[in-house]
Design goal:
Length: 415
């Protein structure tokens, strides 16, 4: 529901008797459903099929907001709350289906440009999340509360019909059994680097949600107007629009581990500036510079995380298949959902107990851990590469000596 005008939704929910804590649960239930059922759908994705999953997912994401908008006519507290949770849950089902299938289709079609294709998809989502609330607010003020829900929901349902008509049939093999999918998932989970980059995906999902939850209260000390505060929030989102550049560089340079390390270092630097680090006096100019750096680092982290997750599986001898592709998609979506759930929760608790500056240490520590883990992977890979080169050099030297001795003995025998 990127198009929701949250301010008007909060007012509407309170008019139905919902407290801030209650309608907070309604909003977060979407992520909860994605988190719980994401891995399950990943296992069954082979049987569902990519095209079918995409069409069903988009349709559910269309009909759910239409019905959610019509809840305006439900006045009783309990029915409104139950129906709100059910519809947010259905939308979560739809989101996990169409997001997973879309990532899998892009990986299959753009096999040699996975990072670039993912970065473009991410940018499109970001644009929707940026302009959606504005359009929702305009429709709300002009045509009423239910208008944005109904209009955008109908557009999504039309999209699902067009997708069912235009998308080709699945070309990947879907004959594997569910037990094979489970065994494939368990085999992938045994790879240490896979766990590290699932953690990286979670870290990339935590940062924006953590900062968004407590940035506005921290900005009050600078006495900014509403427009200036809005521009500060837009600044972070706008700078993530350069994500396709990071995807292009990762695909061209073939150094996703290095980009993950750079991303974690730049993110730590950004959070130190935004906080600022405990002991440093807050400064508006440094904060804005930190947010600029944060937006750039976020793009690097998110693109490199899913690229490294896929690469870790392939480098450990597992051929790319429906199982591995679904694992990458579901691993990324589940990890980012965990991060998006933990981020605001930890932000609120830490901000209330320790203040903004000390709260940002949570992000600093998380990204430092990621940086050291990635550095360890780079070190291990470099050591193995050097060992293989030395082994190859010794083998080539011994073969040369054997050939020389053989040639000498041959000449002596001939003479």
């Amino acid at each position: 529901m990127a198009f929701i005008d949250l301010n008007n939704y909060f007012l509407k929910a309170e008019s139905k008797g919902l407290s801030p804590a209650t309608y907070g649960v309604v909003l977060s239930f979407f992520r909860f459903v994605m988190l719980v059922f994401g891995p399950i759908f990943g296992v069954y994705m082979e049987k569902i099929g990519l095209k079918r999953a995409f069409v069903i997912g988009v349709f559910l994401n269309g009909i759910s907001p239409v019905l959610f908008g019509l809840l305006d006519f439900v006045d009783s507290y309990t029915p409104y709350l139950i129906l709100s949770l059910l519809l947010r849950g259905f939308e979560g089902f739809g989101a996990i289906l169409f997001l997973c299938s879309m990532f899998m289709m892009s990986t299959t079609v753009f096999h040699g440009r996975v990072a670039m294709s993912f970065a473009i998809l991410q940018t499109v989502f970001l644009v929707g999340n940026s302009i959606g609330p504005l359009l929702g607010s305009l429709l709300n003020s002009s045509f009423g509360y239910a208008a944005p829900y109904i209009l955008f929901g109908i557009l999504q349902m039309i999209t699902s019909v067009l997708a069912a008509w235009t998308l080709p049939k699945d070309t990947l093999n879907t004959s594997s059994s569910i037990s094979n999918s489970l065994r494939g998932y368990l085999e992938i989970l045994k790879i240490p680097s896979v766990a590290i980059f699932i953690y990286a995906c979670g870290v990339s999902g935590t940062g924006p949600e953590f900062l968004t939850a407590i940035l506005e209260p921290n900005l009050r000390q600078f006495s900014l107007g509403k427009v200036e505060v809005g521009l500060v929030f837009c600044l972070v989102a706008f700078l993530q629009l350069v994500s396709p550049l990071w995807g292009y560089l990762i695909d061209i340079l073939k150094k996703p581990h290095l980009f993950a390390l750079i991303g974690s270092i730049v993110m730590v630097t950004a959070v130190v500036m935004v906080g600022p680090f405990p002991g440093i006096n807050p400064d508006y100019g440094i904060l804005v510079a930190g947010l600029v750096t944060f937006g750039l680092a976020q793009g690097i982290l998110s693109v490199s995380s899913i690229t490294n997750l896929r690469l870790s599986i392939m480098q450990n001898g597992i051929k790319e298949s429906m199982i591995s592709i679904s694992f990458v998609s579901m691993g990324y979506l589940t990890a980012t959902s965990v991060g998006a759930t933990i981020g605001p929760l930890m932000a609120g608790v830490l901000y209330q107990e320790f203040g903004f500056q000390n709260a940002t240490l949570f992000l600093i520590v998380g990204n430092l851990i990621l940086g050291f883990l990635v550095l360890g992977i780079i070190f291990c890979r470099t050591s193995k590469s050097i060992a293989r080169s030395a082994e190859y050099s010794d083998t080539s030297h011994n073969d040369a000596e054997k050939n020389l001795l053989f040639n000498r003995s041959s000449r002596m025998s001939y003479s």
